[in-house]
Amino acid sequence: MEGDSQRASASWENGTLAPGEHLRSDRADSPLPGLVEGTEPGAGQKSAMFVHAQSFEDLTAEAEEEVRREAEINKSGDGEEELKVLVGEKEQHSSDMTSESRTKEEDVTSEAWRSHRKHVFVLSDAGKPIYTRYGTEEALSSTMGVMMALVSVVEAEKNIIRSIQADGCKVVFLTKSPLVLVGVSRTCQSDKELLRELHYIYYQIVSLLTLTQLNNIFKNKQNYDLRRLLAGSEYLTDNLLTRLERDPGLLLSAVTCLPLASSTRDTVSSSLQAAKSKNLVFSILLAGDRLVTLLRKKDQFLHHIDLHLVFNLVGSSSSFREGEGWTPICLPKFNTAGFFHAHISYLEPASELCLILVSTDREDFFNMSDCKKRFMERLSKRSAYPALKEALKSPTYSVEQVGIPELRHFLYKSKSSGLYTSPEFPDVYKSDCEQERLMGLYQDLHSSLHHPTRPLRYVYRCGDTENLLAWVTSGFELYLCFSPLGTKALAVAAVTKLLKWIRKEEDRLFILSPLTY
Amino acid sequence: MSAMRVDAKVVMLGKESVGKTSLVERYVHHRFLVGPYQNTIGAAFVAKPIQVGEKVITLGIWDTAGSERYEAMSRIYYRGARAAIVCYDLTDGSSFQRARFWVKELQNCEEHCKIYLCGSKSDLISQDRSLRQIDYHDAQDFADEIGAQHFETSSKTGTNVDELFQKVAEDYNSNAFQEMKPEETSVDLSQKKDSYFYSCCHNN
């Protein structure tokens, strides 16, 4: 088992994403869990759309290499006490200077502030606050100073601080010079999961500025206040953090599609394909948080992290609803050095359908505007637009359609396509609080499947409120949620049945034939 | 969207949160959105036809983001603009400094662009005079000095908003027949191909 998982991740290390041709030849009608990547339900037929489609490992691999090089620091016992003393002391200090100045913002000395489940802080190498999820940066400057001190002290011994386990609370550090990111969590997520989330925040910042600009700024002025440049973007980071808690796509490193008849999807894709332009690299059509189609230049692949950043940008702002947006955006997994320029517009002001055209040329606005116009014309001419609008009315499906009585919810990810599918939350999980709880359970399972040293292939867990099964193979990742009355035998039988159902519906649920220009 | 000919490029400039987007929103959609402040990402473009005498002139309005982050990009938005609406917040002194910066920038880089100085949020002043940070006459003096038109507007009530854009369109109309350098003519969405004439100095 150990060997298997090693092999599976090793085969992706060279960075190519399309599975070997020999793997695609046979697509079994009744897929069995023994499927290899490229033949599982939902796998693309021609080529995949994303880079490193199963790149959960890819996301954290870099950080892990550092660990291999440097000895891991286990700061327990003394270290823990030390931190408490330091933090306690510092927070007393900050209370003096902040108590009068802030009324609207949350009081960082209050119990409420301390008891948030997850804090995220971003600071510069010089210890200057850049972002905090709760409270204001000014009020936390001394606390962030302590964080920086911890990083520096360990660095002075030619080592890297990774995490601190304190009582009921975990502190994870990510040093990405010139930035330092710190997560403080009361959840039971593993270090690796928390680190993954910090990486997302890091990429969010890079996507606004580019790494080149970031480095230049701090090279010229070490104690620069980066908040000046990030002003007005805090809500993007806030929203990304909420997404990390709610959106299965960020957990699975995958994207979900709008269920759509394959003939309609093909028409939409080919209409978009026809509206090409010299500098156009990616065309993305979204319906809310769901992908309708994605076109790319040949040999250029989009990374799902970059796509999630685009989703976040579009979803966080209502300003694209009117007129046409034109914004520089860095796609950090593509290239951290430069900006792309994105033309963002909704097909209609009240529509959910948003078209994003990514160009390399910052003067390309009117070309992109013209591409959109051509796409719309073609779409109407081939009368795919009404069908597309019809599909928007049912952007999701209920789990009953699968026909497995005890099954409440599931997440299924096809590894080779980087796409996942999931039914709507049933009534039991309709509330935000219940949804987050279920997502938390999935996250736990995910942690177990992707444990850095002891990854599991199957997990079955019985609880008071639900039973869960998670299963990872080289082709797919599957998370199932059953009613607490279900049995293990039933759960195992459900897997085959579910896979058969997904195979039957894959035309509608996945993008099987992605196009290029 | 149907093919639309844009006659005059108009660019909105000014410090963040002075209300550039609200001004455009009021003018184009006749509404004022109440809600948490949302900054513009990059820039937004909207084309708006306006009646001037017998003629219909289409303004292509570029609503730019005020954030410093996008400053390096601003050149592409004001290049070739026939009018720039430089906004400042009547209740924020620093926004006027920023407006001076933009005026200087335009004078240096875009001498054919007409400048309209616009003090925003005048409804706040009429509610409470003590909120005013920028004296009307100081702003007017500055406008005279740079040869700009000066308006005080409220996007919330709509005061002076239509007047501002009407003035922009009228000025364009009366200057339209004056000689202009060819590459500064308006952008034509429907007949892009014809512009190959002077395309050697652009990268399209």
From TrEMBL, chain A:
GO CC terms in record: Mon1-Ccz1 complex
User: Annotated region Disordered: where?
Assistant: 1-46, 61-110
According to the UniProt entry, which residue ranges have a biased composition of type Basic and acidic residues?
Answer: 66-107
One biological process term in Gene Ontology: protein targeting to vacuole
What span is annotated as the signal peptide, if there is one?
Answer: none
FUZ/MON1/HPS1 third Longin domain location is 406-506
Report the coiled-coil segments: none
Q: Which InterPro entries match?
A: FUZ/MON1/HPS1_longin_1 (IPR043972), FUZ/MON1/HPS1_longin_2 (IPR043971), FUZ/MON1/HPS1_longin_3 (IPR043970), Mon1 (IPR004353)
The FUZ/MON1/HPS1 second Longin domain extends over 278-377
Tell me one Pfam family matched here: Fuz_longin_1
Q: Where does the record place the FUZ/MON1/HPS1 first Longin domain?
A: 118-240
Q: Any stretches that span the bilayer, and where are they?
A: none
Q: Where is the composition biased (Polar residues)?
A: 1-14
Its family remark reads:
Belongs to the MON1/SAND family.
Q: What is this protein called?
A: Vacuolar fusion protein MON1 homolog
From TrEMBL, chain B:
Signal sequence, renumbered to the chain: none
GO cellular component terms?
Answer: autophagosome membrane; cytoplasmic vesicle; cytosol; perinuclear region of cytoplasm; spindle
Keyword set includes Nucleotide-binding? yes
Q: How does it sit in the membrane?
A: Lipid-anchor
Which co-factor is required?
Mg(2+)
Catalyses which reaction?
GTP + H2O = GDP + phosphate + H(+)
One Gene Ontology biological process: protein transport
Indicate the family of this protein. Answer: Belongs to the small GTPase superfamily. Rab family.
Q: What does this protein do?
A: The small GTPases Rab are key regulators of intracellular membrane trafficking, from the formation of transport vesicles to their fusion with membranes. Rabs cycle between an inactive GDP-bound form and an active GTP-bound form that is able to recruit to membranes different sets of downstream effectors directly responsible for vesicle formation, movement, tethering and fusion. RAB24 is an atypical RAB protein that presents low GTPase activity and thereby exists predominantly in the GTP-bound active state. RAB24 is required for the clearance of late autophagic vacuoles under basal conditions.
- Protein name from the UniProt record: Ras-related protein Rab-24
Taxonomic source organism: Champsocephalus esox (pike icefish)
